[in-house]
């Protein structure tokens, strides 16, 4: 079953949106198989956002993601990577459709509430960066 890495960013945690965001993915029918509230180190932030190293906003990005706790999650389900991206909406909240997480709650492109893996390769990489194998719980849904 496909897995993706999703993370409520420091702005989403401080604005008490964890429950709202978890609820959206639960109601959609995806399965939560790992989650933790954590403070990201500079080292982990630089590794996670490595592909943006040359961008002018890289420093800002690392400063923001390390500025307070994040809620890191692994979700499982059919087509969960692309569907979660649709549910998150466009990266820049000003372009994100109403009804999407960023469309409903995002403020700026930096403070855009949530991060989600954009491909199977990045999902695998990001899950491995944030979670140990034993922190992911595979279980069958009873209903
Ligand atoms: P995310 O999905 O976490 O992946 C990379 C992040 O870079 C993106 O969300 C945005 O929050 C951030 N980002 C993209 N463009 C800019 C920008 N121009 N200034 C600041 N942050 C940006």
UniProtKB/TrEMBL annotation:
Q: What does this protein do?
A: Major role in the synthesis of nucleoside triphosphates other than ATP. The ATP gamma phosphate is transferred to the NDP beta phosphate via a ping-pong mechanism, using a phosphorylated active-site intermediate.
State the Pfam families in the record: NDK (PF00334)
Q: Which InterPro entries match?
A: NDK-like_dom (IPR034907), NDK-like_dom_sf (IPR036850), Nucleoside_diP_kinase (IPR001564), Nucleoside_diP_kinase_AS (IPR023005)
Subcellular localization is given as:
Cytoplasm
Q: Keyword Isomerase: yes or no?
A: no
Q: Where is the active site?
A: 115 (pros-phosphohistidine intermediate)
The reaction(s) catalysed by this protein are: a 2'-deoxyribonucleoside 5'-diphosphate + ATP = a 2'-deoxyribonucleoside 5'-triphosphate + ADP; a ribonucleoside 5'-diphosphate + ATP = a ribonucleoside 5'-triphosphate + ADP
* The EC number(s) this enzyme carries: 2.7.4.6
Q: Could you say which protein family the record assigns here?
A: Belongs to the NDK family.
Query: Taking every annotated instance into account, which residue ranges of this chain make up the domain Nucleoside diphosphate kinase-like?
Result: 1-138
Where on the chain is Phosphoserine found, per UniProt? 122
Q: What protein is this chain from?
A: Nucleoside diphosphate kinase
Molecular function (GO) terms for this protein are: nucleoside diphosphate kinase activity
What this protein needs as a cofactor is: Mg(2+)
Kind of enzyme, top EC level? Answer: transferase
Question: Does the keyword Cytoplasm feature in the UniProt annotation?
Answer: yes
Major location (coarse)? cytoplasm
